Amino acid sequence: MATSRTAPQLHPALLTRLQEARARTDSLFTLLPPNSFYERPVPERHRLIFYLGHLEAFDWNLLAPALGLQSHDPEFNKLFAFGIDPVGEGLPTDMPEDWPSIVRVETYNWRLRTQLSDALRAPGGRAANVPEIADGTLLHVALEHRLMHAETLAYLLHNLPVDKKLGKSRPLPDSRPAPHPRQVTVPAGVATLGMPRGSSHEFGWDNEFGVEQVRVPAFSIGAFPVTNAEYLKFVQAGGYQAAFYWTPEDWAWIESEKREHPHFWVPAVNSSSTDPAAQWDLRLMFGSIPLPPSWPVYVTHAEASAYARWAGKKLPKEAQWHRAAYGAPDGSERAYPWGAASPSPRHGNFHFERWDATAVDSHPDGASAFGVHDLLGNGWEWTSTPFGPLPGFQPFSFYPGYSANFFDGKHFVMKGGSPRTDACMLRRPFRNWFQPHYPHVYASFRCVEE
Description:
The chain is α+β, with helices and mostly antiparallel strands. 30% of the residues lie in helices and 11% in strands. The chain is globular and about 65 Å long.
């Protein structure tokens, strides 16, 4: 986390980064014609109009009290304060007419953004005397929260029909064959989870602090994430019709949802080919293409776990994933799988470079010391580890529920990143999490053998 000693250098840079993040999320809303703002592309989530107001409301509710600013619209501050966790009883039932107009929300946004920007940039203003702002903590929270929502908005828009979005060309097919599946042996060693509290200049969310060193026995792990081509074999083998591969809870979900394939797969129209892969298309952000065999399959934790059982393997524990990604044969641990160099496009598919995935063997420069590929970007990777606190966990005083509300045994740790993950969240201790039956996120996986 930033210290007051480094704040004078970091503060202007953080304000610039916040401005860039605002431009990033603003650009996503330009993809929507007016009527689409009131669509709900994911049943478990709010309508898109909520997210238009949420980003500014979050920044205001976080920063305004510390800056001594007075609210002009407490009703909107509350309306747009909190999203919906997909785990819950029933689906939201609000109607489009229950929400304010786009003009009202944009006016609200402009007023809040202007007030906050003026207060943060005022020379010698109150911001410099508030420790959590001066040391960069609250600005980092605002920045990364917004960038997380840039990814959330991407998958929400992905689930919106193409004819309800603006301005992008149809994607091109990708028929490159998948690399031959193989396992990489990772020798026994130590995996260090988390980072020390108070001794790092790097920002982290509350669940990233606390160090746990785990002795990991030798194991083997997939050199690449499971591809569409590999997962198709599970589908063709009747994996969605065999309760044996699923836990009782997961099988109940499969039956209730009548699920027979991954969420982003759609049956191909008018396909006369006998090739099983030709029976499927993949739904991308701006259209569908024939199922690309070399891309990672995006599935839920339940589907990933069922595939692993079918294959006679397991999902990796969080510590195993860390060992494969950041460990090295000499016992050292790296900042990134490839070493100490900052993330760049040659290392993986992340930082908004693409709307969709790419072949799992597209970035050999991003491989780990053990030869494990595609670890950062191209799809978050499921682990078998329930999301929980690291030793000495302390919630943020200004955001106590950020992590702790999800230490419920119903969410699983995800590592890595997706095409829509900002590079700042590729740091080693960063942890993502989701519940096992939520099919909309860009989530991939690989298997281990112990």
